[in-house]
Amino acid sequence: MRRLRPLLLLPLLALLPGCEAVVLSPAGDIAAQQRDLLVMSVVLMLIIVVPVMAMIVFFAWKYRESNKKARYEPDWDHSTHLELVIWAAPLLIIICLGAITWSGTHLLDPYRPLDRIHADKGLAAEVQPLQVNVVAMDWKWLFIYPEYGVATVNELAAPVDRPIRFHITSTGVMNSFYIPALAGQIYAMPGMETKLHAVINRPGEYVGFSANYSGDGFSNMRFAFHGLDQAGFDQWVAGVRAAGQGLDRETYLELEKPSEKVPVIHYASVDAGLFDAVLNMCVEPGKMCMGEMMAIDKKGGLGLTAVHATWPLVYDKYARRGDAVFGSGESYVMAVCTPLEAEKAAVDAARRRQELAVQLERSAPVARVTGAGLARPGQPMELAQERVPAAPSAVSAFAAASQS
């Protein structure tokens, strides 16, 4: 009777169809292709696994002790046919797995723009993808729609059959952006940008979450993803715009502080340069952006100017390290100049080069002095001016201005 007790659990199997196997039944073309890749890999491996498991049972039954008819061959040690099957079958399967993995790695690259909506519909050339900037916070998700000038917290929406291009970053801790119905997961890292291209093919409400542990509020770091028709998406955007509040840098700095179980928040407007500032870790006023810092370092650094323009670099937001050295106050690398000042410096540097060229043209010719903006002996001054370098970019304007 005890042996029959496990059979009493069989009726519970009827409840399994109520479980939503979203990974095996996705609503997005990219997730569907990833599902197919997974299924093909499993089927290929089962070609080996199933016969092996069957032969284990068969051999155990055939060569049991009570079977006196089984042939006893203690000196058997080789079979060419058996060796051929043992080695050839796995080799062919490995070749097949390698081929579909190689093609899938390139075709399903998250950075690769989409070339189709689904298996039966290509992507028209005039269709522009919907850009969504994603910021993983502690412990919530911020979604910015540059095309519409709105933003949301813990709520995402997209039109059906329109490509989506995600630009993803994080504020402090590495997270993983994952909507199983849409596409595979991809990491969100501070100071870095990852991309994901995807499309939703069926209307519905789906779940997204962080698939990488990131601290106390990780379990509640979930959001709703709405797949809507175009009319429904336009209505959703209008509802977000009706929120009334805007997302500027000051509001963002408050939002960035760690919080758990954050409800859905709508922002009717967004600071145009907010996402770039988050990515470059310079939302705070007066803080040097990573792009500016790297551009200066590329040109050899600031030299002695850094002694006066740089504070201790500590990117901890809410806890200090090295208090014994730098003290407990806020510290960071200060921006050398604002974007407007950098642009003005670039214009001034170009103007000074032009004035220098005019002065050299009007002055007495110097026979043996050559260089940028100066004529070679016997060469007209106009050809020399054509070789004058173009004005530097706004990022490197400080170096140009200091050299002038």
Your description of this structure?
The protein folds into 4 domains: 22-60 and 82-108, no CATH class; 117-279, Immunoglobulin-like; 285-336, no CATH class; 339-403, no CATH class. 35% of the residues lie in helices and 17% in strands. It has helices spanning 29-62, 80-107, 230-241, 249-255, 274-279, 290-298, 305-309, 323-326, 339-362, 381-386, 397-403, and strands spanning 116-118, 121-122, 130-136, 141-145, 150-153, 155-159, 164-170, 175-179, 183-188, 194-198, 204-210, 222-228, 246-247, 265-267, 269-270. The chain crosses the membrane at residues 37-61, 82-102. Residues 127-239 form the Cytochrome oxidase subunit II copper A binding domain. Residues 15-112 form the Cytochrome oxidase subunit II transmembrane region profile domain.
The geometry reads as elongated
Uncertain runs are 313-328, 366-373, 381-404
Order of helices and strands: HHEEEEEEEEEEEEHEHEEHHHHHHH
Strand percent estimate: 15-25%
What is the domain total for the residues? 4
Separation of termini? 96 Å
CA radius of gyration is 32 Å
Helix-residue proportion: 25-40%
Q: Can you tell me the CATH topology of the largest domain?
A: Immunoglobulin-like
CATH-defined superfamily of the largest domain: Cupredoxins -  blue copper proteins
Can you give me a brief rundown of this structure?
This protein is an alpha+beta fold and 404 residues long. It contains eleven helices and 15 strands. The chain folds into four domains: 22-60 and 82-108, no CATH class; 117-279, Sandwich (Immunoglobulin-like), CATH 2.60.40; 285-336, no CATH class; 339-403, no CATH class.
